[in-house]
From TrEMBL:
It comes from the Bacteria. This is Uncharacterized protein. It comes from Caulobacter rhizosphaerae.
Amino acid sequence: MRPIRLVVPAFAHVDEPGRQEFAETLMLNLLVQQAAYVDAVERDDRVMQQRLGDAAVARFRNEMGVDLRRLRLTNQGFVKAS
């Protein structure tokens, strides 16, 4: 699998404690956003689903310099979509 540091510029020079903090932050963000998304799906709130997706894309772009909509997950890891 391709290391995330090759895809995420902000992650390239992070030490081990920084990687751990990064991973824990991602997990917490995922849990909170997943709960909100599931609630929006259960209520069939398509506007909120779109807003949550847009917010996730913006957060990754602003915090890590990565556009999630331009990544694809392959057997070799994440690659920039053409």
